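The data layer described in this paper is built around a simple, fixed record for each protein. Such a record has a labelled line for the sequence and another for the backbone structure tokens. For reference, a complete record is included directly beneath this paragraph.
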Amino acid sequence: MKIKSDLIKTFLLKTKNRVKRGLTRINSSAFWKKPKFWKGFSLSILLLLLIGTGSFSFWVMSLDVSKLQSPLAQPTYIYDQNGNKVSELSSSKITPVPIAKIPQTMREAIIDTEDRRFYEHKGVDVWSILRALIHDLHTGGFSEGGSTITQQLAKNLFLPSDKTLGRKFKEAAYAFKIELTLSKDQILEEYLNQIYFGEGQWGIQNAARFYFGKDTEDLNIEESAMLAGLPKAPSIYSPLKNKDKALERRNQVLSLMKDQNDITAADFQRTLSAPITLRKGELKDLSGKFAPYVDYVIEEAISRYGFTEEQLLTGGLQIYTEMDSKVQQAAETVYQDNQYFPQGKPDQNVQSGIAILDQHTGGIRGLVGYRGESPFRSFNHATQLKRQPGSSIKPLTVYGPALEKGYTPGSLLYDGPLNLNGYSPQDYDYQTRGQVTMEEALQNSWNIPAVWLLNEIGLDTGLSFAQKAGLPLTQADRNLSLALGGISSGVSPLQMAQAYSTFANLGTMNKTYAITKITSPNGYVFAQAKPESVQVTSPQNAYTMTRLLENVVDNGTGKNAFFGRPTAGKTGSVELPHTQEFSGISKGSKDVWFVGYTPELTAAVWMGYDKTDRNHYLTVSGGSGPAVIFREVLSRSLKSTPNEDFEIPQGYQDPWGQQQSHRTKFRRKSSFNLARQALPEFWPQPQQLLVESGAEFLGRFT
């Protein structure tokens, strides 16, 4: 053991001596003092710098900032028939404004507050970063200090919100790339349109509108200073939450602006003492306004003019429409009031749709396609519905074409037992009257006379008339059930309103449209409506039909549609299918309608369940539910419109002649209520009136 210990000591001693000799040689040579060493060292450092800089530059150049060059989503605005801006469409939380519309004081306020050397640096302010890093190393954390406006823009658009050195390094790289891509003014514009100003407001325009109720271009010095002070801590400096802190912060910004000579001492003193004055009243937010109509505008822009939904939501389009704001508001108000609708079931609401037209142009004045809350572009019962119209189709498939064939209101029609090739219609009361006039048959919506008359004039005659009026009928509908609305596919309220506008417009049907034109923000016209019209019947026959349909409202199944001015229209009810599912239900309907018009407007109303079954069906009729909706919507829409009679075509030959009753003569006057009061004996009592089908009950009078 002693021998091993001596060997180890000897080895350690020799090793120590060798190290001493090596250090002595290094000291004696002093190689770092030689020029050759420093030359090589400098070249190595330079090479490393070049490689690092090149790698960093290559990485910066490879960064994708194309998002900056994509235009910000611009809201699309909807205008009514008078050119008033009534609604807004947007997929973005931002309403961008160009730099030219941002006041100089607003620009200076944000620069003086956030990045006073903005126009001097190249995206990264080195001195500010060094100061921030020293502070971060001292505190052991990583703050946001030292970031330029360009860096903040990079962070908002391209980076996560974590506070790490790695993220700061990436932030600087993106800032360099942004500075190579955009001018300083473009960067400032992007920044002001992107940053958060608190209270849910993104971008300078939304903030200006929210806090002050004005556009960005109208901001004054003190308002600009207040907004410039918000991005640092929006919740702390919000004037809605803490007006004292907001005022203190605003004045701090004003002081910075004075220090940078961006406002004069006089302006500083004046604005320093000015109170914060926020907007008063509700913010006029057009987003989501008149949604039922706007949903159809989108549909028409896509289907008729080829726009995409993305273009409509982001393209800054200006869409001019035929909407009458008064009519649309009246329709929406009624549809929001449950008293006008049957009570639905917990799992399914009674749905409805209404379309209101100007028969003289085809312009859609108002439209509601659903009841209750509905998601964006949901199913539209006013335009997308396909349901059988019941007896509301009779003027289009039977009585209108019969007038063309020479029949008159006084023509006698058969009303008795009928079997035509196995088809045996029944009147609502399962009774027959032998013979009735056309006027009586239409007034009371009896079924047998309508089917008999369609057979007399010919199926092709009835089918062709309705097709010319715009109903989507096919050869599959060429059967006698056409007289009662038994069609293969179905119709929508908009199609029925368009068809009835034929009678309201003296025989000429104007095809419906909502959009007048679509333009760019600067007025370039992308699309423009081209009105189309079809002469369906003669003015004389159209006016005769109007008088027949007036009688339906005055004395027949449409009585609940009357509201003190000339009104014509027809009810319709579709009975429940005769299937096992509905056995035992004696009184019920699947769909109910009212289609009618005044001298000013034509409207069609449908009501029913989306899914009809034994637990979901209607017990109201077309003469109650839809007729009341028609009355309420049109009476409100025309409240300030003077009463007018329907236009009588030139040279009109009265088919009633001298045989018309006192009642009919008085009906021609503009005030029907006065006529009822003057000669009550000529107006039938409610119990005397007859109704259509099993679901039409005449206990529904004003």
Observations:
- Residues 645 and 670 are 6 Å apart (CA to CA).
- Residues 658-702 have pLDDT under 50 and may be disordered.
- The first strand starts at residue 76 and ends at 79.
- Residues 2-29 form the longest helix (28 residues).
